[in-house]
Amino acid sequence: MKELFNEYVKSIDTYIMFRIKQEAAKLTPELTAKGRAPIALAMGAPVAPPPEFVYDKLKEALSIPQIHTYSTPKGEKFFLDAVKKRMKNRFGVELDAQTEIFSLIGSKEGLANFIRALINPTTDEKKQDVILVPDPGYASYTQMIKTSGGTSYGIALTKENKYMPDMYRIWEEMKQDGITPDRVKAMIINYPSNPLGATCTKEYLKHVVDFCKEKQIWLMSDAAYCDLYFEDENRPHSILEIEGAKDVAVEFFSFSKPYSMTGFRLGWICGNADAVSAFGRLKSTVDTGSFKALQKCAAEVLNSQQGDDYIAKSNKSFKEKQMLVINGFRELGWQIKDEDIPDATFYIWLPIPSKYKTSQEFTSDVLRTSGILLVPGSAFGKNGEGFFRLSAVADDQQLNETICRLKQDGFYFNN
Ligand SMILES: Cc1ncc(COP(=O)(O)O)c(C=O)c1O
Question: How far is the CA of 57 from the centre of ligand 1 (A)?
Answer without folding.
Answer: 24
